[in-house]
Amino acid sequence: MLKSLTLGIVLSLSTPILPVLAEGIELQDRHHQDVQLYFQQGLSDYEHKNYGDAIANFNQAIALNPSFAKAYFRRGKAKSKLKDYTGAITDYNQAIQLNPSDARAYNARGNAHSYLDNGEDAIADYEQAIQIDPSFSWPYYNRGNLKARAQNYSDAIADYTLAIQLDPEDPDMYNNRGRARQKQQDHLSAIADFTQAIHLKPDNAKAYYNRGRSQAFLKEYDGAMADYNQAVSLFKAQGNTKATRIIQRSLRELEQAFEPIIS
User: Fold this and answer.
1) Are 181 and 189 within 8 A, CB to CB?
2) pTM of the predicted model, to two decimals?
3) pLDDT in tens, the chain (263 residues)
4) H helices within the chain, ranges in order?
5) Rounded Cα gap, residues 119 and 249, in angstroms
6) What is the per-residue pLDDT across 241-255, written as a single tens digit (0 to 9) for each?
7) Separation of CA 68 from chain center
8) Please, what is the Cα angle at 82 between 105 and 78, to 5 degrees?
9) Residue 165, C-beta contacts closer than 8 angstroms, at least 6 positions apart
10) Which residue, of 33, 59, 94, 194, is most buried by count of CB atoms within 10 Å of its CB?
11) Using CA atoms, how far apart are residues 255 and 57, in angstroms rounded to an integer?
12) Tens-digit pLDDT profile for residues 19-41
C-alpha cells in the first residue's frame, strides 16, 4: 500500500509540472537562438566591413549572454578595425577571463597593444599565445614584426621563419622576412623571399617594389626597373597614390644611376 500510495502521490504532483518545464526549455531555446542570431549578424557585418553595425549586434548578443566569450572577442576585433584599441583590449580582457585558453584572443590583444606602442605587453601576449598553441603561426609573425621594428633583425627573421614553417602559403610572411634580410644587406636571400611572396600573390605590389630595391642594391638595373614599373602599375590599379609617387621617385633615381652605365 505504501509503495502504491507514494507512487500515486508522485504522479499527481508531477503531472502539472511537465508543461511548465517544456515552456521553460522552449524559452531557453528561443533565448539561445536570439543570441546566435545577433552573433551571426555581427559576423556578417564584420565580413562586409560594417564595423559599427557589427559592434551593435555583438552588444545585443552580450546583453543576452554576458558569458559569451566569442562575442567579446569579435567585438574587440571590430573595435580594432575602428582603431579603438583601448576598447578592444577591454573586450579581449573579458574574452580571456571567460576563456583563458584562447590563443587568438591573446594574439589579438597583443596586436592592440602593439598599435598603442605597448611593446612589452604585446610581446607578453604573443608569447602566451604561442605557449597555448605552438602551432599558431600569427603570434610568431607578429612578434617578428615587433622585433623588426626594434631593429632586432636576426630575431625577427627567426620568428618569421617559424611562422613560415607553420603557414607556408602566407605571402606577407615572406615579404616581411625579405625586408628584414634586406636590412641586413642579405639581398640574395631577400630577393628569394620577395619572389616567393609574388608567386603566392601575383598582384603583390609591395613585394615587387621591395625586390626591385634589392636588385638595385645589387646593380641589377634591368630587373630593378622592371619590378619598379610593375609595382607602379599595381599600386595605381589599387588606388594607392602615395606608394605610386614614392616608387616613381625611386624609378627616376634609378634611371639617373643607370644612365652613365648605358651611355
Assistant:
1) yes
2) 0.83
3) 333 333 343 444 444 555 554 555 555 667 779 999 999 999 999 999 999 999 999 999 999 999 999 999 999 999 999 999 999 999 999 999 999 999 999 999 999 999 999 999 999 999 999 999 999 999 999 999 999 999 999 999 999 999 999 999 999 999 999 999 999 999 999 999 999 999 999 999 999 999 999 999 999 999 999 999 999 999 999 999 998 888 888 888 877 766 544 33
4) 2-14, 17-47, 51-64, 69-81, 85-98, 103-115, 119-132, 137-149, 153-166, 171-183, 187-200, 205-217, 221-237, 241-262
5) 33
6) 998 888 888 888 877
7) 21
8) 40
9) none
10) 194
11) 54
12) 554 555 555 667 779 999 999 99
Q: Which value, in Å, is the radius of gyration of the alpha carbons in the chain?
A: 28
Q: What domains appear along the chain, each with residue ranges and CATH number? A: 48-134 (1.25.40.10)
Q: Is 215 left (phi over 0), alpha (psi -120 to 50) or beta?
A: alpha
Residues near 105 by Cβ (< 8 Å), separated by ≥ 6?
A: 69, 73, 76, 92, 95, 96, 99
Q: How far apart are the C-alpha atoms of 154 and 148, rounded to whole Å?
A: 8
What is d(CA 127, CA 149) in angstroms, rounded to the nearest whole number? 17
How many of the other CB atoms lie within 10 Å of CB of 29? Answer: 10
Contact 180, 170 (CB under 8 A): no
∠ CA 154-210-111 to the nearest 5 degrees?
55
Separation CA 105–CA 70 (nearest Å)? 9
- Give the DSSP letter of residue 204: -
Instruction: Specify the 3-state DSSP secondary structure of 181.
Output: helix
Which pLDDT score is estimated for 32? 79
